[in-house]
Amino acid sequence: MAKSNTKKIHKIGNTRIVPISLKILIVFTSLLLFSNFSSNLVSVMLAQRQITQLTNEVLSDHLKQIFMSATNQWDLYKYSNDKDTAVNAVKTVAQAGLSDAGNVAMAFNTDGEILFIVNGTSLAAEKTLRRVKFAPVKKAIEKNRINADAAREWRSFPDSSALDEINRKLVIGTNEGVVQFNSESGDYLGVYTYQKDWNLYFVCAERSQETFYTTLFNFGITSLFIIFVTIVFLCVGLYLLNRILKNIGVFAKDIYQMQNDHQLGIIDISKANHDDVTYFAASFNALSSSVNNLLTTFQKFVPKDITAKAYAGEAVNLEGKQRELTIMFSDIRNFTSKTEVLGNEIIDLLNVHYGRIIHLVHENGGVIGSIIGDAVLGIYGTEESKNKSLNAVNAAYQMIRTTQSFRNSLKLRRAQIEEKRKLNDAEDRIFRACLVEIGVGLDGGNVFYGNIGSIEHMANTVIGDSVNSASRLEGLTRLYALPVICSKYIKDEVEKVSSKYHFEEIDMVQVKGKSEGIKIYYPLDTEEDTQEVILQFEVFEEALQLYYEGKWAPSRKKFKEFKKFMQKNQPSYVTVADVFIHRMGLKSAPANWSGIWAMTTK
User: What percent of the chain clears pLDDT 70, i.e. is strictly above it?
Assistant: First the structure.
């Protein structure tokens, strides 16, 4: 299971990651605000229309009162012949019905000459100014009051177009109706009627801005309330969304951690809610398990560099190139005879052996090129490393020690059994067949490494002279009874990076399939072999040099000196001296001796 990372995910690569809860909240809040403001605007527009209708009704009622007063005062004027008193009486009635500074009542003749004009008191405006705190609205109301005061100074009807229109209607018999007119103080909407006795138009009107600013004020108050409610909703909504969608964040962190680790894992859904998001996580876990199972199976059949390439999403094609690699070839000695004794059980023995060997190859940075019967081909350097040859030598010695440990455990088990009874001949043959012993050959250089085959079936392989040479060197371990034999390439590479191994030249041979002789080396492990043993190899070097020079008699003497020492101190090195002693016998070097020994077998 991937560990949950408490760190918030801001970016994956160059892509910025936005939490889904924030996206939902932004979209939902935007839609909510749009819906509320739209509804508010429609409500305000409808309210403004209703206010206009109510205003017209109020103005009409007030106009009726003015008209009745004008009719009555005309009769009194005829009786008293006091026009000013009659006009003032009508003016008083007109003034009494106006409550707002934006309201206006006037009387003017058909030429537009105004007889009187009054507007509402400024009391309502003052109350509004005290109530309003929003500076732009407050400033607008103050400006309207100033404009209303300016309207009282009109001497004639301010809109000649509107005057012509109502005169035209009067001619055709329409003596009342709605009038809209413009002035420097603002636009007005009202009602009018014609009084034929006075030959005057009486008008009650309200400045349009009054309704507009009232509407604007109401819209502002409502909008502030909407914003307040939305903020409260945002807080509650964010809390609820985080509770509902908290699993998404947890799952995303797990997946993000998997990406950083370059390994699929399992999302922890033990504490998740039973919803579709958890279902997606469970589906991901099932897919992850399937992929990991396939990947694990895939890794068992192909090198890990190919697995890594496939896991990274790169195509695995029929391709390859020349690369400088180190090749390891390991083989079980006397495998044919073991097969004859063990039969089908040889597979079980091989699996136990390979379980250890393959692990050591991988542990030291190598990959398995192929498994051919009892032989294992290891490749080092597929992932760039300056220590590829050192890693190969380390792996070789670990393989030798592992098989030695396996043999020792079998010998201990035999001893335990023989304390009770003696093994029969069949048991003895099986025991000896299970005593696995291996040799390791190492070489390196430029080889072809890649995939060959077809699009239907391909195999990862390595092809080159170094591969064949490593196999031949492994074969020589049987001849010289040495566990590891390597080429000069391995020697030179290891000596550049480590002093752990002391390389001793063993021979100069012409292996089967080669036309030239090559020097072969045995890497002495300075951590296991004593300094005395290592120094004794100087005698071996002297003997070998005399052997190359064709001085076989003194060479035999030196080899025998080396053998005598090793018989007492390190018997495993006796055979390498015997090879030369038996090869030279009591003879002298051939006349055409070049120092190279031609091998006729692997």
Answer: 75
